Amino acid sequence: MSTLKNKIAVITGGNSGIGLATAAEFIAQGAKVVITGRKQAAIDQAVKELGSNATGVLADTANLQHTDALVEKVKALYGSIDILFINAGVGNFFPLESATEQQFDQIMGINYKGAYFTLSKFIPLLKDGASVILLSSVSATTGMANSSVYSGSKAALNSLAKVAATELAGRKIRVNSVSPGPIDTPIMDKMGLDAATREGFAGAIRNSVPLKRFGSSTEVAKLVAFLASDDSHFITGTDYIVDGGISINAVMP
Ligand SMILES: NC(=O)c1ccc[n+]([C@@H]2O[C@H](COP(=O)([O-])OP(=O)(O)OC[C@H]3O[C@@H](n4cnc5c(N)ncnc54)[C@H](OP(=O)(O)O)[C@@H]3O)[C@@H](O)[C@H]2O)c1
C-alpha cells in the first residue's frame, strides 16, 4: 500500500510503543519519517529497525529550545512537512489530594505544553493541506480515579485540536485527536510499579474492556495513518476513539 507515498512526517516520541508502530506504518505506506525521543540509544535502535526512510532527532518535547532545534533540523532536511503526529507523552497516576507541583508540572509540561508548542512552532513548516494528529486518551472524557493531571493534560489536547482545526482550516490543514483506551506498550513499565501492582492494574483494566484485551500499537497506528492520509480529507477538529469499547461504560455487561 502506498497511501502516504512521498509524504514527510514528524512523529514526537517515535522510539517506542504507539509512536514507533506509527512510524513503521507510515514508512510501509511510502512516507519518510522523522522521529524524536529523549534517549539517543532508543532513537538509534528505532531508526535501525525502521530503515533508511527514518531519521532520529534527540529532542525533549518539554524543552522549547529542543523544539526550536527540531524544527530547524526538519526544515534543513525537508523544507516542509505533510504530517505532524504529536504523540510523546507520559502517564503518572496518583490521588488528587497527594498530587505535587512537580508531578503536575512534569505531566502537563510534556503532555500539554510540549504538544502545544510543538504544534505552534511547526505551523510555518506545515504544507497547505497537511494533517496534524494529537495523541490523546479516553482518559480525556472519562473519570478514572488517580488520573486527574493525566486526564486534564489529554482533555486540553482535545480542545487544542478543535481550536487549531479552526485556525488552520484556511490553509486546508486538518487537525484531529486520537484517543486510545488501554494499549499494550512500554508505558506501564515506566510508572515505577512493582510487578504485582502492575499485573493487578493491568488485569483490572483488561476486565473493564468489553473486548477483554489490551489493544496493540499497530491498531492505533492504522487509525493515525488513515487520518494522516488524503482518504480522510473531509475530517477535521474531531476525536477518534480506539479503545475496545471501554468508554461505552455499560451499566450492564
Ligand atoms: N499505552 C496506552 O494505554 C495509552 C493509552 C492512551 C494514550 N496513550 C498515549 O500514547 C502516547 C504514546 O505512549 P505509549 O503508550 O506508546 O508509551 P511509550 O511506549 O512509553 O512511548 C512514549 C514515547 O514518548 C516519548 N516521550 C516521553 N516523554 C518525552 C519527552 N519529554 N520528549 C520526547 N519524547 C518523549 C518516549 O520517548 P523516551 O523514551 O525517549 O522518553 C516514547 O518514545 C502517549 O501520549 C500516551 O499518553 C497511551
Q: Could you list some keywords that capture this structure?
A:
single chain; 253 residues; alpha/beta; Rossmann fold; seven-stranded parallel β-sheet; 7 helices; 7 strands; globular; binds NADP nicotinamide-adenine-dinucleotide phosphate
The appropriate CATH architecture is 3-Layer(aba) Sandwich
- Overall average residue pLDDT: 96
Distance between the termini: 38 Å
Number of helices: 7
Portion in beta strands:
15-25%
Classified by CATH, the class is Alpha Beta
- Percent in helix: 40-55%
The order of strands across the largest sheet is 3-2-1-4-5-6-7
Ligands in the structure? NADP nicotinamide-adenine-dinucleotide phosphate
Let me know the number of strands.
Answer: 7
CATH topology-level name: Rossmann fold
Compute the CA-based radius of gyration: 17 Å
Low-pLDDT runs: none
**Strand-and-helix sequence, N→C?**
EHEHEHEHEHEHHE
Kindly report the name of the CATH homologous superfamily: NAD(P)-binding Rossmann-like Domain
Overall domain count: 1
